[in-house]
Automatic annotation (TrEMBL):
InterPro entries: HTH_HxlR, WH-like_DNA-bd_sf, WH_DNA-bd_sf
Pfam families tied to this protein: HxlR (PF01638)
Organism from which the protein derives: Streptomyces lincolnensis
First and last residue of the signal peptide: none
Protein name per Swiss-Prot or TrEMBL: Transcriptional regulator
Amino acid sequence: MSTTHEDTEEQNLAYNVFARACVSRGTLEHVTGRWGGLTLGALHEGSMRFNELRRRVDGVSEKMLSQTLHALERDGLVHREAQPTNPPRVDYELTPLGREVAERLMTLIQFVEGRMDDVLAARERYDARRGAR
C-alpha cells in the first residue's frame, strides 16, 4: 500500500478536523457558522460594543450574539473589554489570532459576494431543471 504526500501530511498534524473526536471541529464550527462568521467579519472592521455588533450583524438575536461572542472569546478569537464606567461599557475586538482568521474569512466573503451572479444563475438553471420534471 503506497502512502501519498497528503496521507503523510495528515498523519503529522496534531489535529485533524475530519476526525469525529477532534477538538478542532468545534472551533471550525464557531468560525464558519452563520453568526460566528458574520461576527468575525463585523469585528474585522474594528472594535464594537454589543449593540453596535447586533445592528451590524442584521438578524442575529441578542441571545445568539451573546452565545457566539462567548464561544469566540473562549477560542481566543475575540477579546472582551469591560470598562469600569457607569453604566458599564463592554467592547469586543479581535485578538491577533482572531484577526488572522477574520482576514481569511473576509477573503472568502468577498469572493462569494463577487461571484453571486454566477451562483444566482446556477440556482436558476437548477430550479428550471427541477421544475421541468
